[in-house]
Amino acid sequence: MTTLPKDERLHLRVTGEHHTLIEQAARLEGLTLTGFATRHLVEAATRVVEHHHLTQLGREEAEAFLRALEEDEAPAGVARLTRHFGQVALPVRDEP
Q1: Which of 48, 74, 84, 95 allows an S-S link to 78, with CB 3.0 to 4.6 Å?
Q2: CA terminus-to-terminus distance, the chain
Q3: Which of these, 5, 9, 15, lies nearest to 34 by C-alpha position?
């Protein structure tokens, strides 16, 4: 595994209670405080960025997408998607 140079610093100020809790968690995972903080901050940041990159459809777009999935000439795998989306609500943003 290639280790990249660490040439940036991140300074945090936390309460004594938070510091104690984070130190305890790091020890339980066998990590240094820096290793623990880095691992969990990067995981959280990745989730946030991925969430914001998801495509959000307006109601009209979502309905057109579902109609396209139901077309007879749709590929075979689309039937599975249609069943899935029929069971799970699509994230739809409200129109302005």
Answers
A1: 74
A2: 48
A3: 9
- Secondary structure letter of residue 88 according to DSSP: S
Cβ contacts of residue 62 below 8 Å, gap of 6+? 90, 92
Q: What is the pLDDT of residues 14-65, one digit of tens each?
A: 999 999 999 999 999 999 999 999 999 999 999 888 877 776 777 887 787 7
Calpha distance 32→28 (Å, rounded):
10
pTM comes to: 0.54
Instruction: Locate the domains of the chain by residue range.
Output: 16-53, 57-93
Query: Which amino acid does the sequence have at 6?
Result: K
Yes or no: say if 36 and 22 are a contact pair by the CB < 8 Å rule.
yes
Give the C-alpha distances (Å, rounded to integers) separating 94 from 32, 51, 58, 61, 64. Answer: 45, 18, 6, 11, 16
Closest CA to 25 of 15, 12, 39: 39
Residue whose entry in the numeric block shows the structure tokens 């749709």: 74
Report how far residue 67's alpha carbon sits from residue 61's, in angstroms, rounded to the nearest whole number: 10
